[in-house]
Amino acid sequence: MAQIMTAKEVAEYLRLQPITIYRYAGKGKIPATRVGRFWRFDKDAIDRWIAGDKISPRTGKAAKRKTARKPKK
After folding, report:
1. Cα–Cα distance for residue pair 64/6, rounded to 1 Å
2. pLDDT value of residue 68
3. Measuring CA to CA, how many Å separate 67 from each of 33, 34, 55, 72?
4. Rg (Cα) of the chain, in Å, rounded?
5. What is the tens place of the pLDDT at every residue in 26-70?
6. Minimal CB count within 10 Å: which of 1, 42, 53, 70?
7. Region class of 39: left (phi > 0), else alpha (psi between -120 and 50), else beta
8. pLDDT of residue 15
């Protein structure tokens, strides 16, 4: 089961200020979901984001890699 965190909990976990977490969430720089007027964060998605995996900040899911298309002949 997913562990859901508040902005304050994420700030403590990442050793950042809560305002930084709110700014990152608002700009889509950190995986987050807005529930009403509150931001919520999936701990597993945050851990993958820290590890550098390509995660879509809005969905928390791994982003699909784009491959180059072959030119038509």
Report:
1. 27
2. 55
3. 28, 31, 17, 15
4. 15
5. 999 999 999 999 999 999 999 999 998 765 655 555 555 455 556
6. 1
7. beta
8. 97
Element (H, E) at 5: strand 4-5
Give me the amino acid identity at 24. Y
Enter the tokens of residue 34: 């807005």
Once rounded to an integer, what is the mean pLDDT over residues 13-26? 97
Residue 5 has pLDDT above 70, yes or no: yes
DSSP 73: -
Are the CB atoms for 21 and 14 separated by under 8 Å? yes
Element (H, E) at 4: strand 4-5
On the CB side of 21, CA atoms within 13 Å amount to 23
The beta strands (E) that lie in 20-70 are given as 33-35, 38-42
